[in-house]
Write a structure and sequence with these properties.
The chain has about 350 residues and is of the alpha+beta class. The chain has 4 domains: about 90 residues, 2-Layer Sandwich (Alpha-Beta Plaits), CATH 3.30.70.270; about 60 residues, MutS, DNA mismatch repair protein, domain I (3-Layer(aba) Sandwich), CATH 3.40.1170.60; about 55 residues, 5' to 3' exonuclease, C-terminal subdomain (DNA polymerase, domain 1); about 100 residues, DNA polymerase, Y-family, little finger domain (Dna Ligase, domain 1, 2-Layer Sandwich), CATH 3.30.1490. The protein contains 13 helices and 12 strands. The chain starts with a strand and ends in a 13-residue tail after the last strand. It is found in: Cytoplasm.
C-alpha cells in the first residue's frame, strides 16, 4: 500500500506578495490582470475570498464584489524562485515527486526511511520546514492514494494537516461531496445533482455501467473515486500535449443557438483547468479546437491554429463545426493543443 503526501501552499502567489510587503497583511488582495483589460484573477488572499473572489474570476467581477480589493500584478519569476526552493525540500524525502503546479505537489514516501517511515511525521516536518525557511504556510494531506491525499490537503486549510488512514477510507468518502472529485466541474456537478447525487455515498448507489452510460469513460473513474480507489501512481515527468473539457448532454441540443449558449459554461471550466496547468509549467498554444458529436453519434472536430484561447474563438469554431452536420448535438468539447517544442513561452491569459 502506498503512502502519499499532497502538499498545497496556502494562497501561494498572494502569500508571497504579503511576505514581500508585510503592510498587506490582513487585507483583501489578489494577484492577476487588470480589470480594464479583461484580466483574470490568478489567486487571492483569504480576506478577499470572504467577498466571493476566487481564482479564474474576471478581475472586473472581483472588483465589483470587493471594491477595496488590492490588485497586484503577477510576478511569475519570483513565484518560480520560491517554488523551486520549496520543491527542493520534497526531494529530500523521496525521488518520487510530482509537481502539479508551482504551489502543489504529490510525494510518494512509501519507501522513505525518514521519520521512521511515518508519512504523517514527514508531512508535519515538511510543513514546519516550509514555514521556517520561507515564512509561508502550506496544508498537507496524507493517504494511501493520490485522490484521497489531495482531498485531505484541502480539509483543514489553511496551515493544516489531514490524515486518512486505510481503515478510515470508507467512512471518509461516504459523506464527501462529489464536487470534491477532480474533473467534476459545474456542468458535471449539476448533472450529478439532477440525478440526486450530492455525495460519494450517493454515487456508490449507481452501477459502473450506469455511470458509464451517463458520463462515458469518466463514469468508470467516478465509480472508483466514490469508493476511495485510485491506482494512479505519482508521475515524475508529465508534459500535457493538450487540454480540453467536454460535456455529454442528457437531452440533445436542438440547434446552433443552443450550442452557442453552452460555450460560456464550458469556457469557464476550461479557463479554470488551463490556469492550474499554466501554474505548473510554461506551455504555448498551437491549436484551438472544438468537437461536436451529433445525435447520430457522428463526430466532427474543427481546429484553428495560432491564436490565444478566447470565448469568441471557441464560439466561432462551434458555429463552423455545427454547419458540418446541422442537426441536434449530444456532446460539445473545446480545448487547446500545446506546442511540443522545448520550453515555450508561457501562454498569455491577459494578466
Amino acid at each position: 500500500m502506498r503512502k502519499i503526501i499532497h502538499i498545497d501552499m496556502d494562497c501561494f502567489y498572494a502569500a508571497v506578495e504579503v511576505r514581500e510587503n508585510p503592510s498587506l497583511q490582513g487585507k483583501p488582495i489578489a494577484v492577476g490582470g487588470s480589470g480594464s483589460r479583461r484580466g483574470v484573477i490568478a489567486t487571492c488572499s483569504y480576506e478577499a475570498r470572504k467577498f466571493g473572489v476566487h481564482s479564474a474570476m474576471p478581475t472586473a467581477r472581483a472588483l465589483k464584489l470587493c471594491p477595496q480589493l488590492i490588485l497586484l500584478p503577477v510576478q511569475m519569476n519570483l513565484y518560480k524562485e520560491v517554488s523551486a526552493r520549496i520543491q527542493a525540500l520534497f526531494y529530500q524525502y523521496s525521488e518520487l515527486v510530482e509537481p502539479l503546479s508551482l504551489d502543489e505537489a504529490f510525494i510518494d514516501v512509501s519507501n522513505s526511511e525518514h521519520c521512521g517511515g511515518s508519512a504523517t511525521l514527514m508531512a508535519q516536518e515538511i510543513l514546519h520546514r516550509i514555514y521556517s525557511t520561507e515564512k509561508l504556510t502550506a496544508s498537507a494531506g496524507v493517504a494511501s492514494n493520490k485522490f484521497l491525499a489531495k482531498v485531505a490537503s484541502d480539509w483543514n486549510k489553511p496551515n493544516g494537516l489531514c490524515v486518512v488512514k486505510p481503515d478510515e477510507i470508507d467512512a471518509f468518502v461516504l459523506e464527501l461531496p462529489v464536487k470534491r472529485i477532480f474533473g467534476v466541474g459545474k456542468v458535471t456537478g449539476q448533472r450529478l445533482l439532477d440525478m440526486g447525487i450530492e455525495t460519494c455515498g450517493d454515487l456508490q448507489g449507481f452501477s459502473k455501467q450506469h455511470l458509464c452510460d451517463q458520463f462515458g469513460v469518466f463514469g468508470s473513474r467516478l465509480y472508483e473515486l466514490a469508493r476511495g480507489v485510485d491506482e494512479h501512481p505519482v508521475t515524475t515527468h508529465r508534459t500535457p500535449k493538450s487540454l480540453s473539457v467536454e460535456e455529454t448532454y442528457v437531452k440533445d441540443i436542438a440547434d446552433l443557438v443552443g450550442c452557442l449558449n453552452e460555450v460560456p459554461v464550458l469556457y469557464q471550466e476550461f479557463l479554470e483547468r488551463l490556469a492550474r496547468t499554466q501554474k505548473r509549467m510554461s506551455l504555448r498554444p498551437r491549436t484551438l479546437f472544438v468537437k461536436l458529436r451529433f445525435d447520430d453519434f457522428e463526430t466532427t472536430t474543427i481546429q484553428m491554429a495560432g491564436t490565444v484561447p478566447s470565448e469568441e474563438g471557441f464560439r466561432h469554431l462551434c458555429e463552423q463545426a455545427w454547419q458540418r452536420g446541422k442537426r441536434p448535438v449530444r456532446l460539445i468539447g473545446l480545448g487547446v493543443q500545446f506546442s511540443p517544442v522545448g520550453m515555450p513561452e508561457q501562454l498569455e491569459l491577459v494578466f
